[in-house]
Fold each of these.
Amino acid sequence: MKFLEKWLHFYRIYTLGYSIRRVNADELEIRHLILDAFPRGMIRLIFLAILGVIAFIDFQHGVRPFDNQINAIKYDFDWAFNPDNRIMPLYKEYLEEIQREEYKRMYPNSKIDSYEEFKKPYFERDSLRLVRPIFHVIWPLLLLCILFPPRPRGIRINRKKKVIYQQHLGKEYWLAFIPDEGDPLSGIVYNLYGLYPFSLTGRYSLQIGIPEKDGKLPFLMYGCYPNPSLEHNRYLLRAIRDFVREDNPASLKYIGRCYKFPWLNPLIFLFNVGSIFRMPFNQKLADKQIEAELKAWKKRSENSKKHWFEAVQRQQQSVNQDLAELKMDNKI
């Protein structure tokens, strides 16, 4: 039992790397589930389903899968750059036909077209002859962008500046403060049992809400999809706590600059791995806004700061109570 418990603990800590990456020594980023992991995987599943349907239809007609599509592409390139390969056999058939005695009797005054005259109508009828190969170069690039879309930025935890922030609409940032003492999660509202697409195994997404100045509390979903374990969300929040409280927490020893490759979990691999580039992130603009918010924060009295954290925690308690009524434990 002890071995099993140790292995489970190791697995849960190791798989944090599927959802967390280290931006620098003092900052972590947690993957955005809805904008990053889920749509990436769904697009790929749809693409694989389309390939499966094409392969099935080809099998039914006794054709090797994708032979028709490959031959069509080859034909377009051959027709564009080596049209003689296609037209010359037709010209030879034409010569054989007009040299037959029966044809000569029927059309005694028929003129034999030269090869240049013969192939001219083919080029005139197909004005897109040179355009189609360009399309065959463009569509794989578009498909590559669709299957490996840019990675949106997730929520970030900066323990040096003691803030938790999320990029919003490009140039704006939602920002929560981390208290100097007490629970590092006091400035956010979390829900371990958030909406989880196609949940059939009792798994849930981690929802984190950052209070806005106008009192609104937008919740976003974080972590990889699907969850590697039922305790993944709880371990994510514990990792945030450990990161703020300790210099080198044991729970983050497997976290690197990039998200880990889930080699042994094909579904997590399908939904989370692979991106041409990350979404643009203006760190200077983020730092500027954070510094402005921190400057205003430091001007507030200790009582004012305390009331701010208490207001956030009241919202957290409300979430906890609602979940408790559903017999769900939202406490870390």
Amino acid sequence: MALAVSLGEVMRSAFRTLRRRLLPAATAMALAVLPAVAAISVGPEVGKPLQAAGEALSKKRYDQALKEVEKAAAVKAIKPDEKWAVEQMRAAIFKAQGKFNLAANAFEAATKLVPLSAADQAGALETLSQLWYRHGDFAKSAAYGEKALAAGRQSEAFRQMLAEAYYRSDNPAKASKLAQALVNEARAAGRKPNAEVLQLLAASEFGTGNVDGYIKTLRQQLATQSTHDNWQRLFDAMEKQKPIPDRLDMDWVRLKLAADAYENPDSYTEAAQRAIVEGLPGEAVSILDKGWQAGLLGQPGPKQERQERLRAYAREQVEAQRKELDEQQRQAIAAKDTNTLAKLGMARAMLGQLDQGINLLQQSLRGKPRLPARTRLWLGILYYKAGQSKLAEQTLAAIPADSDEARLAGLWVLLAQGKR
């Protein structure tokens, strides 16, 4: 009958795309709607007020729409099929108002009024999960979502929402398991994992206390989202996982600077002071210049004079080092002092003499320095600075995988890939 057809269109229109966000940049998904029952029959006593409700809904006259729904529901001889149409319309109105809990209650009531196939029942469970998610009752969303999943609802968007519901209902273990499955499926299909799913996976791993898993996921995130926040999270996690040894303090500082992870003036001045102590005044000047360019140093205030003194001192040390380097290098070569050669190589590189720095580090490695892993790390960094990415990766890959230097080397590779 014509009335039944128009009511069906009202239902479909009312439940078209419902947009939601799982995480700050999550994708949109459509809200499912109960399928129309093939043999539904709506009499005029119920159909006319429902038709009026649909028209009011289309004009966003929600109070009037609900009044018409109540008229339809009050019909004494109302049949189950007609009750189904009433509850569907009620749910559509509540959903349009943003009253997702009331929409869910009405929607669930509708599911109990007519026989549904297994597939339709699964779709209804997914819809209920979405509605409770929108309401903010993540525990209920997860409960209905689990049932929908078991019933065969497997779309990526739905499972992403369910994983988020798990996470928001304080069940990071289940969230992690589902998010990891989505990541694995994407890789198996030759696709990059969804950035929002990786973000959820990282948060879930953190929530379960799985630091190794958290770091692994953060590194995966950085492969596609080389952002300041992601780098900062990774640095923080790595420091908590295992402290960086003293011998690599400057290397850790250098890496964080390259990733723009420093946000305050003291970080820059402390890094510059460390570089001077390590015999790298050229690097100290570069660090301070970067702080000035970022607007973090040299600003009027109680620390300005100290910062300017440090900058002037670093520049003085650069000039002094330039005068001494040739003689120091001659002595190191004569003494076959591979450790000093490595340090002089870094000093020259930080003074802008990149080719000479690389050459000295290569000589040092041929002579078997005391810290070969650190020397390879330095050489890999200089290759990157020289634009020789392939050589850099080969050099860093030769560092023993179980060393602390290898932890840093992998991040240099990741950082370089993110800047390509």
Amino acid sequence: MTALKYSSLVLDLGGVLLNTPKVPVDLSPRKVKDALDMPTWHEYETGKLPQHECYDRVAKTFGLDVQVWAETMLKLTVGQEPNTELIAAIRELKSVYPGLRVICLSNIPEPAFELLRELIEGWGIMDQVHVSAISGFRKPNTAAFRDFLSSTHNTSESCIFVDDRIENVISAQCLGFQALLFQNTVSTVAAIHNLLGDPVARGMTYLKQHAGNLFSMTDDGQVHKDNFSQLLILQNTGDKSLVSLEKRGHTWNYFIGEPRLYGTTYANDSDTTCLALTILDDVPEEEKAYAMNAILANLSPDGLPYTWFDDKRPRLCHCICANVYRFFHLQGQAGQLPGVYEHLCRILRTGAFALGSRYYANPDWFLYTLSDLCGRRPLDTALQEMRELLGARIQDRMGGDDDVLGAALRLLSAQSLAVKNQRDLTTVRDAQQLDGGWEMVWLWQTARGAIKMGSRGVITAMAVRGIQNAESML
């Protein structure tokens, strides 16, 4: 088994593994919070002040009856509610990653810890418990973390630290811990899995578990079977067993099954046809020639390829134009589309692509397709201007937002040009879900966004490829 990058998972108690109960007490939550944040309480938590003296000082400071304060603390301590969802998830993590040590690091006074000790031990997940009452140091002070590392024989770089207080997280991160701010159980467990697991292996497991059923969905919840998404999954994985494809005739239709959507019937199209003929390795030359002739017979007055092989639907989309040009250029037939190269470069030069297109709302699709062309022909001088324009645009857009589809497209675009893109790589890696896949993203749309199509399969395939490429570029 591959050694874990992180050998220890360090968890806080209160607010992470334990939730403060809503038990009836005679003091306001604000007054309790203020008392627990005062220096007197900090001394008590680190064993420098006995309980009776601490309680007397708190009662005097806030004008409280000391017995009321003592009863309040007892109720809040014995009433702590275990985060059973997180505890179960940690138990599963330990079974998946047997070498992982789970350690508690908590600010807690000794009497409270003794009341909770049996409960904590009963969870069966802790390899070690490190509390302020015994160490004499409390978070977020640096000494608390240094003492923890020394006594547990850890390095900060080998630890994932989870806490619900931002000052503790910042202090830990500054010392080299991989620190996570606990906000909810689901996102925290997903983040831990992403740090411990192999994202490529987990992503491929997800794809293989859903092989043959990685279809898209419409924004009204309908299953949407299309060739285009299947071809993208194939392009990014190289695994035909994952996809289902359907071809009728010498060109391709976007749809699998009846090419009809909400009352409209769709002809075969240049977008799906060119993607298929670009990535499939068993297409006869005569079929490619037929497709090129069909496209050349279906151009705009400016010589730009229309989307549909239907003279009643003269639709233009610069992302589809880029896809068509890629196919022609790879076939050595770019000269049959005079002016298209300059048109694409002009869109890059002016930044007009940033508006998105008729069918592709995300502007990074344009960069993705053209970068793929340049990556396939890295020494082609005929693509030099396009390559330079793409490089500049991709550099400008790297890490520009946390949209996962955009990040994946930019990551792959940069990699096609042999450029590292750490910012978008981080966004992509952090978005992996517990099941190993990535959440559905909206890929494209019908005209003017009337209907959107989304997919988990496509974004998962892209993410896996991007992460895999990044690892090979190290």
